[in-house]
Amino acid sequence: MNPSHGGWLILLTIALAMVLAIFHVPESWPQWLGWLRPAWLAMVVFYWVMELPHRLGLISAWVIGLLLDVLYADPLGLNGFLLAAITYVVWRFYERLRMYSIVQQCIVVFLLVLVTESLRIVVQDVAWSRGWSWGVILPALMSMLTWPFVYLVLQRARLQVRVE
């Protein structure tokens, strides 16, 4: 990922998504609000790979996922694999995804986040015996609902900075 030609914007949005991913709700708020956090990094990676597939590749997504493993204290390589899988799927179908309406893209985001969150829960259950819950649907649902806003903000920023 070249910082010139707007690559700094890609790095900035990825860093901001990482900060939003580790942001916790205050203790005075109800605990269940933590489940309503969208998969910010998955949406940002989805956007950049869909719009500029030559700027963000599998290795970049894997390295970003390794950094997320450190932030989440997940088993090393879990988020790297999940983000690389999202990158591969989006890279494989980016031309088709660009032609989808925003509603269809929301459904794709929902399915991708649901599958990755389910895999994360399964691996965490094997590694730490945490158990599985239906709360895995909420991050996918919130990601689907926030996707139009994320798409609009990233699209406007990309066009203003002229990232190519």
Based on secondary structure, the structural category is mainly alpha
The share of residues in helices is over 70%
Note the run of SSEs as H and E. HHHHHHH
Q: What's the tally of helices? A: 7
Q: Supply the number of structural domains.
A: 1
How many strands? 0
Provide the low-confidence segments as ranges: none
- Shape from CA axes? globular
N-C termini distance:
12 Å
Distinctive features:
164 residues, 71% helix, 0% strand
Description:
This protein is mostly helical and 164 residues long. The protein has one domain. α2 runs parallel beside α4. The model has no long low-confidence stretch (mean pLDDT 89).
Question: Short description, anyone?
Answer:
By secondary structure, the chain is mostly helical. It has one domain (7-20, 37-161). It has helices at residues 7-22, 40-51, 58-72, 78-92, 94-99, 102-128, 137-161.
SSE arrangement:
Elements: H1 7-22, H2 40-51, H3 58-72, H4 78-92, H5 94-99, H6 102-128, H7 137-161
Helix pairs in contact: 1-2, 2-4, 2-7, 3-4, 4-6, 6-7
